[in-house]
């Protein structure tokens, strides 16, 4: 089943080149779709447009066959619960003045009247936070700490816990391991794979790192200068039919 469908999406900024140029994609339920390309090619702009964090200049965005590109903020609210994002920099994503437990509980308090949780249960704030920390393999004691007291890998796990806390259907992962050391990168990628299977999540995995994309994804799209120049299933990664730019990326893979 198609979860997300994007048709001819364009994003332009006044006086600048077009950041996303007539781009189309489809993401299936339960799938991890990888999007790879060099820094500055428009990947993060696309992510913000898909989630309606930024307005688009043209095209259509469908979530479960419902057009969302023109919805106002009130009508977008049900979709915001179903679509979450994990950013590259966990330090910037977490409020430094809030303890971890308060950052984790905030999405639930925002959406709780509309939530029907299947994987987590809310019997108390403490029990709910404990479940979320366990889901991302963090000790319960971290709930009472502040972001600056955690390592980079721990902070990124907290942002992942917050993203899954309201049980979305789609998570956009925008360079989620780029700021981590190699050991933490591998651990976070393994965790994300496990969560996708356990919670029946769908991912759009965005990265400049082809190795990480290949590890995570069933299908891969290659972006260059705002356009999709290649797309293929993982088992066709090394095919002679690949675009020249894809072959360049593979050569440093």
TrEMBL record:
Residues 4-250 form the ABC transporter domain. It comes from the Bacteria. GO terms for molecular function: ATP binding. Pfam families: ABC_tran. Keywords: ATP-binding, Nucleotide-binding, Transport. SUPFAM superfamilies: P-loop containing nucleoside triphosphate hydrolases. SMART domains: AAA (SM00382). This is ABC transporter ATP-binding protein. It comes from Paenibacillus shunpengii.
């Amino acid at each position: 089943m198609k979860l997300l469908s994007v048709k001819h999406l364009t994003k332009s900024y006044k006086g600048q080149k077009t950041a996303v140029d007539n781009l189309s994609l489809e993401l299936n339920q339960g799938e991890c779709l990888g999007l790879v390309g060099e820094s500055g090619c428009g990947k993060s702009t696309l992510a913000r447009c898909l989630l309606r964090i930024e307005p688009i200049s043209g095209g259509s965005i469908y979530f479960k066959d419902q057009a969302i590109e023109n919805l106002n903020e009130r009508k977008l609210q049900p979709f915001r619960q179903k679509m979450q994002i994990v950013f590259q920099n966990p330090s910037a994503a977490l409020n430094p003045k809030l303890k971890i437990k308060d950052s984790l509980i905030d999405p639930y308090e925002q959406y709780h009247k509309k939530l029907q949780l299947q994987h987590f249960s809310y019997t108390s704030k403490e029990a709910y936070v404990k479940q979320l920390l366990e889901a991302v393999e963090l000790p319960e004691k971290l709930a009472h700490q502040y972001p600056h007291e955690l390592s980079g890998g721990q902070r990124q796990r907290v942002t992942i816990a917050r993203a899954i806390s309201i049980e979305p259907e789609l998570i956009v992962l925008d360079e989620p391991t780029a700021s981590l050391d190699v050991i933490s990168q591998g651990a976070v990628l393994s965790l994300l794979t496990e969560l996708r299977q356990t919670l029946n999540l769908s991912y759009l995995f965005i990265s400049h790192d082809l190795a990480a994309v290949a590890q995570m994804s069933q299908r891969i799209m290659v972006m260059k200068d705002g356009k999709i120049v290649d797309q293929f299933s993982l088992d066709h990664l090394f095919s002679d039919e690949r675009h020249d730019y894809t072959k360049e990326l593979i050569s440093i893979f």
